[in-house]
Design brief:
The complex is a heterodimer of chains A (494) and B (256). In chain A, helix 8 packs parallel to helix 9 (283-289). Chain A has two domains: 57-191, Glutaredoxin, CATH 3.40.30.10; 194-446, Rossmann fold (3-Layer(aba) Sandwich). With 494 residues, chain A is an alpha/beta fold. In chain A, a hairpin with a 2-residue loop joins strand 4 (143-147) and strand 5. Chain A contains twelve helices and 21 strands. With 256 residues, chain B is mainly α. Chain B has one domain (2-165, 227-249). Chain B contains 13 helices and one strand. In chain B, helix 2 (16-39) runs parallel beside helix 7, helix 8 crosses helix 9 (154-169) and helix 10 (171-188) packs antiparallel against helix 11 (194-209). The longest helix of chain B is centred in the middle third of the chain and has 32 residues, at 86-117. Classes of the chains: A alpha/beta (494), B mainly alpha (256). Chains A and B meet through helix 1, strand 1, helix 3, helix 4 and helix 12 of A and helix 2, helix 3, helix 7, helix 8 and helix 10 of B.
Chain lengths: 494, 256
């Protein structure tokens, strides 16, 4: 009897043990199957089973972009690095239009493009890794696209056109989504071989020139910085020297080096304005420019002709393109210039140099000079805002463009008006003219759409909001709480 | 299964639980909706995405009593004695909880209609967020079922469920911390160069983030739909439902 009972217990234990094994085993097997199926699905069908149903397909890339990506060789992949932590919630931010679209580039390109997000504040080594020579002054919150030893910085804010009036009120109101346009053109430009090299003179409290570097890339011109250090020397491979938005004069040693550079037929592009450096007279720079009969004045132009004026202060106005330079741009005879300094011919002319006006004001413009910390009206007449100069004869001919406004080259202007604005198109033509390169290839990529979630303001009044707030936030929840209380009271004794 | 489903769904309205859950959901979603309304631009995706953060409160409330209450009352024995399978029990309760979520979600559908009436737009991305909401709800309700089957105390079940959801919601934060920790460690002790350290850190972070259902489903709100994240949510839900089934079935053979 005892044996039978112990046999039964033993059998029951064995059965329980077996069922336990089956139970644990089946859970492990199911877990493995689920993980394997997810990984396989993700890797094999991830792209095929992803669909863009967004309004107007804003997260799809165009055929043009696909063709550009197809051109990237497998052997030399492109790297897109966001110098910030990948945003997880980018609602109401411009990243809503950028981050998912870059993912689409990544998905389509496969191994041809890698996309990473690395915050330089957490991993400072990423800056050194991307830009070992520290040329580009890489900063957080930008995208860096690198290909071989080339690198272009894309500021997310430059992927949009902004409403200028709103910008003046410190508000950001995008008017056009140029994300795909910007990234595709940058990728395309990086694959083109550079044939020229431009040097940006730095250390003169100059404005940023990241967008100008991008423009030069589009015309196959590489860019590098040239600091005004003790041993300042213009490199032999310099095809174009740029002083963009400088707010301080060049030192004397630089002045001599630049004179030598011009005498050897060097190309120079200078852009200054009156806005942030009213007291600067640029004596050393003028000494260099005097060799080609150009001088920058230390006063500001105030336009008086109403048909030219853009803003009521009269410091922002249209300028005429001189006849000789009208071929630089199609369908426009005027450009914009703000806070401009007059550029004039020097009083004493160098015999072998010749200079021409490029941009001019109306006949009724005035100049104002700073006297006792206040602006005082000077002369009235027609002023040059831009001039071009070269030598009149000989085989060696330097070429110089000098602009008294930064509206043709500043990052701020390009960010607001875009690469295809008249001012920037004109600047590109100036560069092409000096460097003798073919027109830059800006690919025509469709402009993306901007979502509008705005409601009809005529239908939403303060009263209707209050009414809806009372219904949705107070009455509806309260009704359910009352129901809960009633049910609780009825059933608490059950 | 239908009998279990019906009994469980009605039970939500025979005690305060269902009403409190709906009141809570309608209050929170109402606050978000009015907040958007005052801004002059209504983005329903934004409201639904914010509501996902409240799974941590609403799911434990809805699921805490599913199995633990039966176990506490001793009515659990009916699962084994009635002519129904344990699969029917688990699925019936799971579907009842999901139905309650659907009822709660009617608030958001009303907000969508209001948006249209007020001249706003409801775009594809908004519907994407709705789909994701229900798939994530399925995942968390399955998890809640599992937590409820573990114990006979509703409170413990709710706490376990809360902790599980909290961990899932913090996966990306953990990943980020771990990545920073690993990279710092490797760089400090010069085990590998900084580039390799970054790569290792990034790989670890990516691997952990792969488990994050919120990150996986983020792009739905922008109208980019993918079957893979939905499959992920459903397969994890199936896994937890199977675990629940196994816990219930344990009683058939367990000696304790």
């Amino acid at each position: 009897m005892k044996n039978i009972r112990s046999e039964k217990t033993k059998n029951r234990n064995e059965r329980a043990y077996n069922l336990k094994l089956v139970s644990i085993g089946s859970v492990i097997i199911l877990l493995v199957i689920i993980l394997a199926a997810n990984i396989l699905f993700d890797k094999l069908l991830g792209k095929a089973l992803t669909f863009d149903f967004s309004s107007l397909g804003k997260y799809s890339i165009s055929q043009t972009t696909k063709e550009v990506i197809d051109k990237i060789p497998e052997s030399e992949p492109m790297r897109i690095v966001g110098l910030f932590e990948r945003p997880t919630n980018f609602e109401y931010s411009i990243y809503e239009y950028i981050v998912p679209l870059i993912d689409v580039y990544d998905n389509y390109a496969g191994s041809k493009i890698s996309v990473e997000y690395v915050d330089p504040e957490t991993y400072p080594s990423i800056i050194k890794q991307l830009d070992p020579a520290d040329v580009y002054d890489l900063k957080s919150d930008t995208y860096v696209i690198s290909y071989g030893d080339k690198l272009v910085v894309v500021d997310p804010y430059d992927c949009f056109y902004w409403n200028e009036d709103a910008l003046n009120l410190n508000q950001l109101l995008p008017t056009a989504n140029m994300v795909e346009y910007t990234f595709t053109n940058t990728i395309n430009q990086l694959m083109v071989e550079y044939t020229k090299k431009a040097y940006f003179v730095t250390g003169l409290q100059e404005d940023a020139s990241i967008n100008l570097m991008s423009i030069l890339s589009s015309i196959q011109c590489d860019s590098a910085e040239l600091p005004v250090s003790e041993g300042f020397k213009i490199p032999d491979d310099c095809d174009l020297l740029i002083l963009n938005g400088i707010n301080a004069d060049i030192p004397e040693r630089v002045q001599e080096e630049m004179k030598t550079y011009l005498s050897k037929g060097g190309k120079l592009f200078v852009a200054v304005n009156f806005y942030s450096n009213a007291s600067e007279k640029y004596e050393h720079l003028n000494s260099v420019l005097a060799t080609v009969n150009i001088s920058i004045d230390d006063c500001i132009i105030q336009e008086a002709d109403p048909s030219y004026v853009l803003v009521s202060t009269n410091y922002e106005a249209y300028v005429d393109i001189a006849d000789e330079f009208k071929s630089f741009i199609d369908n426009a005879s005027k450009l914009q210039a703000s806070y401009a300094r007059p550029i004039r011919q020097t009083d004493v002319l160098a015999s072998n140099a010749v200079s021409y006006p490029v941009l001019t004001t109306s006949d009724n413009a005035k100049t104002q000079i700073v006297k006792d910390n206040a602006l005082e009206l000077a002369n009235e007449g027609k002023y040059n805002v831009g001039m071009y100069a070269t030598y009149s004869s000989g085989d060696i001919r330097p070429e110089v463009y000098v602009f008294g406004t930064t509206d043709l080259s500043s990052d701020a202007y390009i960010s607001s008006y875009g690469y295809s604005s008249n001012n920037i198109s004109f600047t590109i033509s100036c560069f092409r003219n000096m460097l003798n390169v073919a027109p830059g290839e800006y690919i025509n990529v469709p402009v993306g759409q901007l979502d509008s979630r705005k409601i009809d303001s005529t239908r939403v009044t303060a009263t209707s909001i209050t009414l809806l707030a009372i219904v949705f936030v107070a009455i509806v929840p309260l009704l359910f709480i009352i129901c809960a209380t009633i049910v609780y009271n009825r059933r608490r004794h059950l | 299964m239908f009998a279990i489903f019906k009994r469980e769904l009605l039970s939500y309205f025979r005690n305060p639980t269902g009403y409190i859950a709906i009141a809570l959901f309608s209050f929170i979603s109402g606050v978000y909706f009015i907040n958007l309304l005052t801004r002059g631009a209504i983005n329903i995706s934004s409201e639904i995405t914010q509501m996902r953060s409240f799974f941590i409160i609403i799911v434990p409330i809805v699921t805490m009593g599913l199995f633990s209450e039966d176990r506490r009352r001793g009515t659990e024995v009916l699962y084994y004695t009635n002519p129904i399978t344990l699969f029917d029990v688990v699925m019936g309760k799971f579907l009842a909880a999901m139905s309650l979520f659907f009822i709660m979600f009617i608030n958001v559908f009303i907000h969508m209609i209001m948006t249209k009436i007020l001249g706003g737009v409801v775009v594809t991305g908004d519907w994407g967020t709705v789909i994701v909401f229900f798939f994530l709800a399925a995942l968390f309700v399955a998890l809640g079922c599992f937590a409820s089957a573990l114990t006979d105390s509703q409170l413990i079940s709710a706490i376990v469920c809360f902790v599980f959801i909290l961990v899932i919601q913090l996966v990306s934060t953990f990943a980020s911390f771990l990545e920073t920790g690993v990279v710092t460690l490797l760089e400090t002790f010069n085990i590998v160069n900084s580039e390799t350290a970054n790569a290792i850190g990034s790989t670890i972070s990516d691997a952990i983030n792969w488990l994050d259902p919120f990150t996986k489903t983020n792009n739905f709100r922008y109208g980019v739909f993918s079957v893979i994240p939905l499959f992920f949510c459903i397969s994890i839900a199936v896994f937890f439902l199977y675990l629940t089934f196994r816990i219930l079935e344990k009683k058939r053979w367990s000696q304790k």
